[in-house]
From TrEMBL:
Keywords: Signal, Sugar transport, Transport. Residues 1-22 form the signal peptide. It is found in: Cell envelope. It comes from the Bacteria. InterPro entries: Bact_Solute-Bind_Prot2, Peripla_BP_I, SBP_2_dom. It holds the Pfam family Peripla_BP_4. PANTHER family: D-XYLOSE-BINDING PERIPLASMIC PROTEIN (PTHR30036:SF1). The keyword Transport applies. This is Multiple sugar transport system substrate-binding protein. The keyword Ligase does not apply.
Length: 369
């Protein structure tokens, strides 16, 4: 009887030690579990590298953890990244899709695991597996770009060169839609004449374009968000342009990276007397271009606010709360609840106020201020 009790006692101690070790293991494993998974499209654009640090900072004082992965312009890598994060037990996925439609399968896998999906800055389309969309008002961005060209152009028959982002990015359509909404009346009344798109020329009398019509124009003037592609297109267009399509011109460039490339091309053409060129993102290099007069404007989207909004929604979800939204967007399958952030036009007149005084950048990072 004593031997049996002693054996039982030893077994009980072993079981307790095993349970204690398992608890310790669970505790340490719990600390490595990721609360919020973030997938960004590429490390090759300054914007997304800056976002990486801002996301890290946003959760630095939180009990929640995050891991950030980059897709490097590949939808296959993007899906692989989502699977990696799902294996780490994420509860919220924040994702900026490389291709809005192709990302659907990746987020559908996340939804099957009960993960809340936040589409960040670019909308994932044609799926019901998106819960929230955190965005700048993309139509307003394009409208601001178009209005700047209107406000700063003089005379009639001003040659208008149109460029757009990637046709795989839903935002590119929204930016162009916004720009067209304000430029079209001025194209129709002869203030501007389209210089580089036969599809846009065909539709110049139409105020509202269908998705298919927008797609046809984008097919001709897309830069794919690639500065080199923008440079090559601009060179091709200027080589083909007749004398009446040069002189003082206006250029709708979709973002800062493409704007600088296009500005470099237009700036070296001896038959271009002056040019206005738009941009967006307030990239450091483009702010210097604005100061130097090589880029006319940029649309400042304060990413600090966008990151804060995205992380705010994520934390509210993790805390079991219902996030507040300010609107919705049709992604082709559902109306996705959205949190929108305002945008600001920046040019030489207000660059110091908006970007230096607001501590977005430091004055020491620029010359000529």
């Amino acid at each position: 009887m004593k031997r049996t009790w002693k054996s039982f006692s030893v077994l009980l101690v072993v079981m307790l030690v095993t349970a204690l070790m398992a608890a310790c293991s669970d505790s340490s494993g719990g600390s490595s579990k990721v609360s919020v998974g973030i997938v960004l499209p590429t490390k090759d654009e300054p914007r997304w590298v800056q976002d990486e640090q801002r996301f890290k900072d946003a959760l630095s004082d939180s009990k929640y953890t995050t891991e950030i992965l980059f897709s490097q312009g590949s939808s296959a890598k993007e899906k692989e990244n989502v699977e990696t994060l799902l294996n780490k037990g994420i509860e919220v996925l924040i994702i900026t899709p490389h291709d809005g439609a192709a990302a659907a399968s990746a987020v559908e896998a996340a939804k099957k695991e009960g993960v809340t999906v936040i589409s960040y800055d670019r909308l994932i389309t044609n799926t019901d597996a998106v819960d929230y969309y955190v965005t700048f008002d993309s139509v307003a961005v394009g409208a601001a770009q178009g209005q700047y060209l209107i406000d700063n152009s003089e005379g009639k028959d001003v040659p208008l060169y149109l460029y757009a982002g990637a046709a795989s990015d839903n935002n590119a359509f929204l930016f162009f839609e916004g720009a067209w909404s304000v430029l079209q009346p001025k194209i129709a009344d002869g203030t501007f004449k389209i210089a580089n798109s036969s599809e846009a020329e065909k539709l110049k009398d139409k105020a509202e374009l269908t998705r298919d019509e927008l797609g046809k124009i984008l097919g001709q003037v897309t830069t794919n968000w690639d500065p080199n592609e923008a440079k090559n297109k601009a060179q091709t267009h200027l080589t083909a342009a007749s004398a009446d399509l040069k002189g003082d011109v206006a250029v709708l460039a979709p973002n800062d990276g493409t704007a600088r490339s296009i500005a470099d091309v237009f700036g070296t053409d001896g038959d271009i007397t002056s040019f206005l060129v738009t941009g967006q993102d307030a990239e450091k290099a483009s702010i210097q271009y604005v100061i130097d007069g090589n880029q006319s404007m940029t649309v400042f989207k304060d990413v600090r606010t966008l990151v804060k909004d995205a992380m705010g929604i994520a934390v509210e979800i993790l805390d079991g709360k219902t996030p507040e939204t300010t609107g919705s967007y049709d992604n082709g399958n559902k109306e996705v609840k959205a949190k929108q952030t305002d945008v600001i036009v920046v040019d030489q007149e207000n660059v110091k106020k908006e970007l230096i005084d607001s501590e977005y950048y430091e004055a020491s990072e620029f010359t000529g201020l």
